[in-house]
Design a protein that fits this description.
Length: 425
């Protein structure tokens, strides 16, 4: 057993991490926290972090991001530790990446390319692969300068998982055409998802989306609630492909529960854009279950990082239940209660050990009941837009047309109720 582990370790790509510490950055995340997460990303990509170099930076260098002294330090460390790949914690411009590779004489990539590699490694469905390819091509396009760019480098390893085509030189026009084709195909995927959502709403089936930081336990919770059989693994971004399953609540109400790609601190914007078709499930959901790793020492920062992405998706107004997962890892009930007190609506569970699931289901039923309200109102005859809105966002029971008004009875989100109230017709 020990011999096999040594062989496996010897085959792993040896990585040196370059951690950029911006002196003017007032964000709560410290360089040590970013270093720990970068190490997890490297492991998820099949590499091994051998050494790290922290680079305090007040003013970036246009040529190499960091100053010459730090470049020399990296060269020395790479030689001393027999490094295969250098990975920067911040995005590099195309010219900076080329200049660094010329100096270091080793493959040099940045955090975004590392994350894209993990996505390429874990995408299994056709839709997932298309979304990853789109993100990769949009990352590569601005880096096409001079002799061209390699979509798949020779030699293999981290930073080499190409977006599909294996030709070494692809010009802007061909990449642009491929991006346009992918966007068109993903729009069709989004349209198909929209039709499915409309059908569910017409049938009065609420939708619930699982959101949360990567590796918080969303897929495990989906499996626990629906026996979905979703592949789970302790690692970052192990689940990329959206999966929806029907769940019957204890009150016999049927809902659709959807798993989504995990979020992360400073998740590259191009990934959010590429995965918009999948993430529309989040925006259109009736209820969000924000799965949070309660055992993480910086759980509040993980929560805020997810909220940043939800704001970008315009989903912060959606009713949300914070599901504090891995509560079994906490030392005492008092510690669990302390974490719960940080959030307005929360429940503590262990998805893996199936603890607290009954209480979670009760909370879901209560919040779904609170988020919708039945109306029976008259609206002006010229307000067909409101009839359409009721069909789109709620469940319509009856519509009656009169000479001067429309009578509508429907169940709609509480947030829309004010739109249907008129003093006189």
């Amino acid at each position: 057993m020990k011999e096999s582990q040594l062989v496996e370790s010897a085959d792993m790509e040896r990585v040196l991490l370059v951690m950029i510490d911006f002196k003017n950055d007032k964000q709560q995340w410290q360089v040590e926290d970013n270093l720990f997460e970068m190490q997890e990303l490297v492991v998820a990509c099949g590499g091994e972090v051998i050494e790290s170099v922290i680079c305090p930076l007040s003013k970036p260098s246009a040529a190499t991001l960091i100053n010459k002294g730090k470049v020399d330090e990296i060269i020395t460390a790479c030689s001393a530790f027999d490094i295969d790949t250098v990975i920067f914690s911040e995005d590099l411009k195309g010219s900076q990446q080329r200049n660094l590779e010329e100096s270091i004489k080793l493959k040099t990539i940045d955090r975004t390319q590392l994350i894209l590699d993990i996505f390429a490694k874990n995408a299994t469905s056709k839709e997932g692969k298309m979304q990853v390819e789109l993100a990769q091509l949009e990352y590569l396009l601005p880096r096409l300068v001079g002799k061209g760019v390699e979509l798949s480098r020779l030699g293999g390893g981290i930073g080499t998982l190409g977006p599909g085509e294996t030709k070494l030189e692809v010009d802007r026009r061909r990449i642009g055409q491929r991006i346009d084709k992918l966007k068109k195909e993903l729009k069709e995927v989004a349209a198909g998802r929209q039709l499915k959502r409309k059908k569910r709403k017409d049938q009065g089936v609420p939708s619930i989306s699982l959101v949360g930081y990567t590796n918080a336990g969303k897929s495990t919770l989906l499996n626990t609630l629906t026996q979905a059989g979703q592949k789970t693994k302790d690692g970052l971004f192990t689940t990329l492909d959206s999966l929806s399953r029907q769940l019957a609540l204890p009150n016999h109400q049927k809902v659709v529960l959807s798993d989504t790609v995990g979020f992360m601190h400073q998740l590259p914007h191009r990934l959010i854009e590429a995965f918009k078709a999948t993430l529309e499930e989040v925006k259109e959901a009736d209820l969000l279950l924000h799965v949070l790793d309660g055992s993480h020492p910086r759980f509040r920062d993980l929560y805020e990082s997810v909220c940043v992405v939800l704001r970008e998706l315009e989903a912060m107004q959606t009713p949300t239940l914070v599901v504090i997962n891995k509560a079994d890892h906490l030392e005492s009930p008092e510690m669990v209660a302390g974490i719960q007190s940080s959030f307005e609506n929360s429940v503590a569970i262990s998805a893996l050990k199936k603890q607290g699931i009954d209480l979670l289901l009760e909370k879901i039923m209560a919040m779904l009941a609170e988020s919708f309200e039945e109306i029976h109102v008259d609206i002006p005859i010229n307000r067909m837009d409101l009839v359409n809105l009721a069909h789109k966002e709620g469940e319509v029971f009856s519509v009656k047309y009169y000479n001067d008004r429309i009578n509508i009875r429907a169940s709609i989100p509480v947030s829309l109720k004010a739109k249907f109230i008129f003093e006189s017709i």
